[in-house]
């Protein structure tokens, strides 16, 4: 059994200093067994749970949003334990050990998880995650490393052609993006079989990586990579609430 990795004393210790405010990277967020358990759960989901998109496939938990609104429903236990619990146990600052990354979000916890799966050569077009969510995304990566490209915008609002920052996400790592990095920048994953030109000058989280030695000649071959992105959807409606109104009449 590989041990469950310790939680950092504070997110301040794992801040990606080269990024705009704020990005955090924890190379060892879950253990090998936890990674395997999660991949088994994801594979065991009924086939209709998967939405096949042009260049990746997607599961949405507990359900899709309708007009930026989530129908209130608890996340299944396997998505809460260990990831969500550990996210809330990670102090945002040493000054306030009770604070965590969702302390100031509407529900003080994530209520929504997207599971994206990419084969080598697949990716996601640069985009922003939008206003449905509180501006915090916690991404746990499983199976393979890949690079997340971060783009700025030009004065006329168009996207810059070249990424301004590159973040390498290793298997079992956690990446948190918040604030300006969430609201003002776009992120995407290139459709390549291999990430290239990786080094201390090109990878923003280089000093926080677990295994930079696996990168040979600046290259890393991709295999199947699955990501879980935890967020807090701002608007939540209760189905029971509506029935209660009907019940009264
Ligand atoms: O798979 C990832 O790391 C990114 C996914 C993403 O950007 C999204 O679901 O909005
Ligand atoms: Fe996204």
From TrEMBL:
Annotated Fe2OG dioxygenase domain residues: 109-234
GO-annotated molecular function: dioxygenase activity; metal ion binding
Keyword Oxidoreductase tagged: yes
Localization per record: Nucleus
Keyword Isomerase: no
InterPro entries given in the database record: AlkB-like, AlkB-like_sf, ALKBH6, Oxoglu/Fe-dep_dioxygenase_dom
GO CC aspect terms: nucleus
Gene3D superfamilies associated with the record: Alpha-ketoglutarate-dependent dioxygenase AlkB-like
Domain of life according to the entry: Eukaryota
Keywords associated with the record: Dioxygenase, Iron, Metal-binding, Nucleus, Oxidoreductase
Main location: nucleus
Any one Pfam family match given in the protein's UniProt record, by short name: 2OG-FeII_Oxy_2
Stated family: Belongs to the alkB family.
UniProt xrefs under PANTHER family: ALPHA-KETOGLUTARATE-DEPENDENT DIOXYGENASE ALKB HOMOLOG 6
Name of the protein in its database record: Calpain
Organism of provenance: Venustampulla echinocandica
Source organism phylogeny: Eukaryota, Fungi, Dikarya, Ascomycota, Pezizomycotina
């Amino acid at each position: 059994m590989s041990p469950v990795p310790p939680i950092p004393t504070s997110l301040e210790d794992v801040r990606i200093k080269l990024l705009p405010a704020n990005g955090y990277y924890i190379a060892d967020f879950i253990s090998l067994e936890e990674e395997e358990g999660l991949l088994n759960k994801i594979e065991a989901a009924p086939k209709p749970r998967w939405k096949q998109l042009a260049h990746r496939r997607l599961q949405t938990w507990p359900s899709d949003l309708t007009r930026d609104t989530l129908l209130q429903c608890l996340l299944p236990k396997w998505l809460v334990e260990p990831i969500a619990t550990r996210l809330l146990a990670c102090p945002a600052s040493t000054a306030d050990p009770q604070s965590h990354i969702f302390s100031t979000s509407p529900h003080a916890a994530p209520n929504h998880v997207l599971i994206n799966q990419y084969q080598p050569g697949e990716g996601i077009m640069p985009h922003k995650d939008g206003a449905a969510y509180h501006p915090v995304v916690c991404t746990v990566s499983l199976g393979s490393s890949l690079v997340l490209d971060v783009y700025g915008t030009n004065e006329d609002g168009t996207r810059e052609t070249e990424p301004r920052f590159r973040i390498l996400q290793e298997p079992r790592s956690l990446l948190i993006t918040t604030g300006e990095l969430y609201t003002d920048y776009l992120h995407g994953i290139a459709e390549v079989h291999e990430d290239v030109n990786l080094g201390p000058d090109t990878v923003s989280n280089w000093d926080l990586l677990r295994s930079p030695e696996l990168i040979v000649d600046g290259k890393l071959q991709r295999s199947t990579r699955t990501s879980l992105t935890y967020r807090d959807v701002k608007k939540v409606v209760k189905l029971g609430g509506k029935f209660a109104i009907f019940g009264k009449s």
